[in-house]
Amino acid sequence: MSKLRSFIEELPKCELHVHIEGTLEPKMKLQLAKRNKVELPYKNEKAVRDAYEFDDLSSFLTVYYEGMSVLLTEQDFFDLTYAYLKKAHSQNVLYTEMFFDPQAHTARGVSFDTVIRGIRRAQMQAEISFGIRSQLIMCFLRDWSAEFAMSTLLQSIPYKEWIIGVGLDSDERNNPPIKFVEVFKRAREEGYFLTMHCDVDQKDSVNNIWQTVKDIGVDRIDHGVNSLEDMKLCEEIKEQSLTLTVCPISNSFVSDGSKSEAILSMLENGMRVTVNSDDPAYFPGYMTENLICVQKDVQLGKRELVQLAENAFEGTWLPRSTKDRFIEDLKNYVTKY
Ligand code: ADE
Ligand code: ZN
């Protein structure tokens, strides 16, 4: 394993499923609470982590939204994003498309402008400091109304140059994709790429994935593991060349396991599956740890690991020529290794 471990560590990577608010590590949570004079009921990092008691999506989301109370200023969003990009760079992530949840901040009085300016400044600084490239995906919270999502979409228009696409996250239960059909139609008209969470093992997972690919018409699917329950759906996903952003360590916290077998089946079935971290401060493990998790679970070899990395670069929303340059870097790494 140790040779494969260093192969994974040094592999040029691309991350397509990470929530920037989900990278808020306990240490930074405590630092920001102190700086912003926000009272938290935890004395130290261990106490913060000990309070992370979740075993499904909705219990995780409660902890995730609580944690955001310390994010108040532009500098907070800068620090959060810069720390993630630095960590990602240390694991050889060359490019990432990151989610942010503006409604989770505007709903508690932090302006859209504050959030996006802090994130954007960190993206630019990290590119200068480390060479890591990144883009931003704005997620709507599906357990809030379609009207709130639409007004957030309209609010984003002056910042369109800083946002590559829109997504849908939060609690899937009784919040099917179709609830947001008008919002996503308008987002498409505004030139955004589209993706949606189809979380693992939800009540209506298969139906919701069908809606996502047929009624919404997305460019990518976040998670989407349950598509394997319906071969026709898998064929449709392949037909549309959709990328699936699967998050093994996250899966092991919110469902009955990492779903590494599903990742392997998708690879074998020619689906464009990728491995990602989701909320690495809560489901401990960044890109390298997630790849190692799958490698160990189903004994992936170098060929499959490279395929996963190539799938991610291919699944980005970058222009063809930029994708090709990243894939070239990947191929050079494999040749030299
Ligand atoms: N928001 C942050 N992480 C999420 C996840 N894994 N599923 C749905 N919404 C989320
Ligand atoms: Zn997610």
UniProtKB/TrEMBL annotation:
Pfam families linked to this entry: A_deaminase (PF00962)
Q: Which InterPro entries match?
A: A_deaminase_dom, ADE, Ado/ade_deaminase, Metal_Hydrolase
EC number of this enzyme: 3.5.4.2
Q: Which residues bind Zn(2+)?
A: H17, H19, H197, D278
| Cofactor dependence | Zn(2+)
Q: Which reaction does it catalyse?
A: adenine + H2O + H(+) = hypoxanthine + NH4(+)
Q: Where is this site: Important for catalytic activity?
A: H223
Q: Which Gene3D superfamilies match?
A: Metal-dependent hydrolases
Q: What are the annotated GO cellular component locations?
A: cytosol
One GO MF term: adenine deaminase activity
Q: Which UniProt keywords apply?
A: Hydrolase, Metal-binding, Nucleotide metabolism, Zinc
One GO BP annotation of this record: hypoxanthine salvage
Adenosine deaminase domain residues: 12-331
Cofactor binding notes: Binds 1 zinc ion per subunit.
Q: Tell me the residue numbers annotated for binding substrate.
A: D279
Q: Which family does it belong to?
A: Belongs to the metallo-dependent hydrolases superfamily. Adenosine and AMP deaminases family. Adenine deaminase type 2 subfamily.
Role: Catalyzes the hydrolytic deamination of adenine to hypoxanthine. Plays an important role in the purine salvage pathway and in nitrogen catabolism.
Q: What is this protein called?
A: Adenine deaminase
Q: Which organism is it from?
A: SAR324 cluster bacterium
